[in-house]
Design goal:
single chain, 416 residues, alpha+beta, 16 helices, 5 strands, disordered N terminus
Amino acid sequence: MDITASQEKNGADSQSWHNSFREGYEELFPARSSLVNELELFVQQALSPLSPAPRVKGRIKSFKSYSKKYIRYVKDGLDPTQINDVIGIRIICLFIEDIAEVEKLLREKLSIIDVERKAMEYNLREFGYDSLHLIINVPEDMQGQSLPCCKTAEIQIRTIMQDAWAEVEHELIYKTEFAPFDTPLRRKLAAVNASLFLADIVFQEIRGYQQRLNGEIRKRRDSFFQKIEETADAFVFTSSPPGIVPDDRLSPPTADSLALENIDDLLLEALSAHNKNQFSKAIAIYTRILDMKPVDNVSSLIYKHRGIAYFTRSLYEEAISDFSQALELDPKSYKAAYYKGIVCTVLKRYPQAIDAFNLSLTVNPYQAYCLYRRAQVYYHLEDYPQALGDCEAALALEPFDAFKSFKALVLDKLKL
């Protein structure tokens, strides 16, 4: 056989193998597609405790990609049946910290064979995408019939920024004949990668700040509502509001606090002091923020916080003034109107209290506690039918025991 004939025979054999290989791939594709859908749903359910929920998407390795990897395995003397990423799941998270939470939840539900952290493959002078890859055993109840190369699957976990880089990098580098050799081009790619990495870091820092801020606000809200319970509720049966609450931890702002120039940092510092009952310090920092002349919606928020601090110390006139200022800057601040109504109730300024509660409910009518507090005002005014109406409306929104007890009190007055 001459060389030309030999080449033709080899080419024919190669084409025959290629056709046979494609037929096998296409034959298994429907079963693999069904398995991917089932695994995708399983992962979504496993991650349901997370909020916000990551985006989950399944995929099957394309024939071109799979055949290339199969041939590479054969050339390298590896068993091609051990290719473990024919099917896969990609999980896209909003924040870096979510990746660890996703991994933790998946470890509780799946058998993990191997873990690969892509960022560790690169030195400081290289660029490449960061991603966490898990190789898992597909749960036996999903496998059905024995599927070659589908007893395992790959799960990729990334942030949105990491996924964006991976998609572009795959197109520019891995799907081309060569990666950029030119130093300026490589530097530009490295700069883009660094920018995306920095974006992830900044997003995480902002989220961390918001979590701390929200935590302080929750603590402040809890203490504020406790104060309401001690005044507005108890005041149904008492004749006068309590006196000024002493500031047990009187302390001026520290040098560190005074050095802060960022409104966000100052607000976090003020809320922290507020939650430690350092009311004078909190009020001083709120005042400093207001002296910085922030935009109206921010100023309204700060007046509301400072009003709460005044109220917690039973400095009622100052609290009313601040809640009024908050409303002037933001007429839609239904919480400021509600808080003003509470203070007016404690001070027996019933018409003003009703006006404030009316304003709050006009902006947001679905406030069970605001209806309940207005019912208490009508009770003081001996307008028991109005009190009953508000109480029943509050109960329709939230069937709290306190509302039920108050309704019984009103019914007793009506002798119903």
